[in-house]
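DM from R.C. (forwarded with permission)

"hey, sorry to bug you on a friday — could you get me a structure for this? deadline for the figure draft is monday and I only need the backbone to look sensible"
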Amino acid sequence: MTVVVFGSINLDLVVEVPRLPIKGETVIGHRFFAAAGGKAANQAVAIAKLGIPVSLVGQIGEDSFGKTLIESLETAGVNTSGITVNSSTYSGIASIVVDETGANTIACAAGANNLVREREIEQLKNLLPQAEIVLLELGVPIATVLTAAREAKAHDCFLILDPAPVNSNLPEELFSLVDVITPNEVEASQLVGFTVDGVTTARQAASVLHQMGVKNVIITLGDRGSFYSTEEDSYWIKPIPVSVVDTVAAGDAFNGALAVALASGKSLREAVQWGTVGGALAVTKNGAQSSLPSKANFQELLNQQVIWDE
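My reply, with the result:
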């Protein structure tokens, strides 16, 4: 059985700066690099690097960026047969500014990602008979995400939704289809309409998300760990202390490792532990896909952890 990831594919254009600029300000950076990215693409690479077969469904432009993106995915071991190449548009890009603490701001030009529609749904349907888990995110049109969710559930797939880029007007049906939702604090705040800034408010947000129809909620809290809630139980997951270099793709590493654990037969509780390890390793390196952990590094850190605090 395999995992299918459905969503955005971008080339990240990254500038490292001493501090993030304020509105109207120019800050001189000290390094620039381009790296393959996009939330769905990052999650697919994270899964492939941890040794689970994974297919990515999305769209790129017929341009040099698109070629770079496909090459990067295939080098990582991702099945790219579900990716459409569109000659009438450009590949998506993300302009990322990262400061010395690892904090970042991101602006995206979605390009081909905005045109993910019927063709990509057909590609997804071709892959679903062999799929066990499907990951969705919101970097492609919401209507398409909802259709993809319906198709995944029609094939009895376990469905994970990373609600980013956050959209506070998601259709109610989508929440009822999702098996796990994985927002960070900012995304959770926008979904529930109040500030989520720690374990207490994460617990309150999880309760609201359950009422909206989500079965299982995982809210990532950055250096304060994560909060995990089912309809019966809830837990705070301790953070793993690491030296933060760049937080880009930390959430994608979390979701990828979460999916790998579930595909490996682990319980959801164990899978959250795997996700915590994946996210911690990702922030110790620069870039998106370049920061995603290898299987060996992942297993080494996982073996060291006693994360659960009950």
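R.C.: lifesaver. DSSP finds ten helices and 14 strands in the chain.
me: no worries. The chain has one domain: 2-9+37-91+111-309.
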